[in-house]
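ok posting inputs for the 2-acetamido-2-deoxy-beta-D-glucopyranose job
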Amino acid sequence: MLYRCLCLFAFVALSSAACDTTWPNSTETKVTWWQCSSGPVMVTNVNPTDKKGVYEYPIRLTEPLLIATTVNDPSSTYSSPGLKQTIKVWSWNMNSCSWTGVPTFGLLNNIDACTNGVPCPIRPGNNQIINLELDFSDTPAIINLLHNDKPYQLEYMLHDDVTNEDLCIIFQARALTK
Ligand SMILES: *[C@@H]1O[C@H](CO)[C@@H](O)[C@H](O)[C@H]1NC(C)=O
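and the output
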């Protein structure tokens, strides 16, 4: 009985030590996303596209891209200067089998959303597709840290200072950075 228990422990230890996931959440072939705010704006779909609106996967961070985000906005209008944007980036760590933060040097913290890729104003309405532009080409300090053709996780957070409301999306995708 004791022998069997020890065996079981050894097996558990072995299986948790190895990270065999190069592409967490099937990011090799498709984007994974979820909403990280609880409303009032609700996200029903997220689709990465190139600048012209054509579906793009893997995403290409060397040029501006659009995150076509379908939202239901029940009541609020968001605009400048109240609407602020913060983007966080993680890379996939094969040693720890977890996401590791990539420094963004404060460049993407609490910046004016309407002049940084959000088509303002965002108005109430259901099933609206909002094209959130993502452009790392003007922040070489960040893009130079990113290895080519790897999975990345992005948190795209919009906070409105006027209503104190948030819209947050987590987005995991295979990305080309060269
Ligand atoms: C995979 O996606 C789910 C949500 O669909 C999330 O809860 C989970 O943390 C993700 N796993 C990783 C390794 O990011």
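notes: The first strand starts at residue 32 and ends at 35. The radius of gyration is 19 Å.
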